[in-house]
Amino acid sequence: MIVLGIESSCDETAAAVVEDGWRILSSVVSSQITIHRPYGGVVPELASRQHVKVIIPVIAEALQRADLEMSSVDVIAVTQGPGLVGSLLVGIGVAKGLAYASGKPLVAVNHLEGHIQAAFMNEAQPSFPIVALVVSGGHTNLYLVKDYGSIDLVGRTRDDAAGEAFDKVAKFLDLGYPGGVVIDSLARKGNPQAISFPRAYLERDSLDFSFSGIKTAVVNFVRKYAQTNQPNESSKPGVSGVAAKELPLPVADIVASFQEAVVEVLVEKTCTAAKRFQVRQVVVAGGVAANSRLRQRLQEEVGGLGLFLNLPAPELCTDNAAMIAAAGFHKLKHGDPPWELNFDAISRWPDVPAGS
Ligand code: KG4
Ligand code: ZN
User: Fold this and answer.
1) Closest C-alpha to ligand 1, atom 23
2) CATH 2.60.120.260 is the classification of domain 127-311
3) Which residues in the chain are classed under CATH 3.30.420.40?
4) Which of 155, 225, 339, 345 is least buried, going by the fewest C-beta atoms within 10 A?
5) Which pLDDT belongs to residue 352?
6) Ligand 1 interacting residues, C-beta cut-off 6 A
7) Which CATH class is domain 2-117+316-333?
8) 305 to 125, 128, 204, 278: CA distances (angstroms)
């Protein structure tokens, strides 16, 4: 079965052609990084406008790279949410138009299910039950996946997502955008033990996360460091991120220590969940799963428990449409009927709260 996947939930316009839920025939991602970089974050209206501009060429390129015509596509799959509503509506509108014009079935997909599915591209087989950590710019969720379509949320962030913390720390230090990638590479030059930033484990047994405290700890550390080391007495108080950049700050040590603290909590809670639910397989997906230190520590710790760790290739961790096509395939294969063409975007997916 050939599925055309369409993804436009945030700042990437993506289309992909996937065969039988795992074989990627093409995957095209048009990034909006340069558009949002001057603002240090995604500007929703600019994102929607850019999706409108490029979505048709992106789909055409995906079909061309797969060497297929639209007539060879069996099913269209599109991200329904969660995400920026204006962005989602672009992908959904185009997918509905294609489905209506071609008479092909359309299936709507949860973006986070797509991220999990990215671990099973290229022949890897899921062995249920699975613990899945989906860690991105908008989410830090731990799931117990019992089967296709049977996914329980067992932990989630109570404030910032891990990717959001990376992005905010990078923005404060004026390191560039997107923050996660910059910190990942700069941290390789720093000492992860240099500064002891707090790790929020929350209540005993909790699988929830909290990353706003560590972000504040970085800000406080920089302000204090700047005040103690500021050569010019008159500019001591109220050091901003930009002003701090002009100081001889140990930036590589700061970001390496920050990254280490975030990674430690992510790895520890994932391993705790894997042991608690007695799974044999762990999946870690979403943009932050591309982080090299997180991948290394997961391999050590999850591997140390004797469990199988399934990490998607870095380009499948960040937003893409191959994962949406694969998730759409499995929805249909496991009994979901094709969608009517009157569904809406879901900006905030009503997830079952952890513990309820
Ligand atoms: O999954 P994704 O592409 O989009 C969302 O659905 O949010 O994730 C984007 C997030 C951003 O916060 C970005 O900074 C982070 O993933 N990210 C990384 C890395 N690559 C992307 N964070 C840490 N290290 C990386 N290498
Ligand atoms: Zn995502």
Assistant:
1) 180
2) no
3) 2-117+316-333, 127-311
4) 225
5) 45
6) 10, 136-138, 163, 166-167, 178-181, 184, 286-288, 290-291, 318-319
7) alpha beta
8) 20, 17, 21, 11
